[in-house]
Amino acid sequence: MRKVSWIRHRDLHILTAGGYTYTSDQRFQATHSPQTDDWTLHIKWAQQRDAGVYECQVSTQPVRSFFVTLHVVDCDEIYQRMFSDAVPSARILGGPDLHVDIGSTINLTCVIQFSPEPPAYIFWYHEDEVISYDSTRGGVSVVTEKGAATTSYLLLQDATAEDSGRYSCSPSNAEVASVRVHVLNGERPAAMQTGSAGLSNSSKCIVALLAAGVLRARLLRAQLTS
């Protein structure tokens, strides 16, 4: 049976030959499919330095070679390119109304999408007043995670009736997003959202982003075929 070797042209290093691996980097492995006689080079956890030309060499006489160019891209960069013409927007997960127990932690999650760069700042408001971290109320904190989509979490511990009302997330590069919080004391319908509202909704954000990506892909395909 002919032997197939994979060679990395960056340093002319023989990575695999047949079923043997000739590199200490355990991310590289070649597999053979007896049904199709295909040899596949696998690179686990690809990194930028893995980009370049790879040669698949078959031990025929003369030797036959096939060259492949590997491009390693950043997911955040792809995301930004896909939505480069979209308008930056902000929304608070779980709205327009959130119901929490008195004494629990209010956790509001604001997601800023489609912006060419993360917002320079994000202000949180209760009604029309900026929420201050050093207010006499205490128990106020904000956590912000920047990336392709920036997420800001507002946490208010030991919720009281006075914490009810409209909360707004105001990023520097997008329109204001608002939600109304109801702090309740007593029983209410099971359909109402209870407890800490925000972190439990992170999966909804992921689903929404995936749906937006699918919709965007369909629109691009429609434009190419029209």
Distance between the termini: 48 Å
Biggest sheet: strand arrangement: 3-2-1-6-7
The protein's oligomeric status is single chain
Largest sheet: 5 strands, antiparallel
Helical stretch tally: 2
What sequence of helices (H) and strands (E) makes up the elements?
EEEEEEEHEEEEEEEEEH
Write down the Rg. Answer: 26 Å
Q: In terms of structural class, how would the helical and strand content be classed?
A: mainly beta
The percentage of residues in β strands lies in: 35-45%
Number of strands: 16
Written account of the structure:
This protein has 226 residues and is mainly β. Helices cover 14% and strands 40% of the residues. It is built from two helices and 16 strands. The strands form four sheets. It has a five-stranded antiparallel sheet, with no helix packed on it. Strands 9-16-15-11-12 form a five-stranded mixed sheet, with no helix packed on it. Strands 8-10-14-13 form a four-stranded antiparallel sheet, with no helix packed on it. The longest helix is centred in the C-terminal third of the chain and has 24 residues, at 202-225. The two termini are 48 Å apart. The model is unreliable at 189-211 (pLDDT under 50).
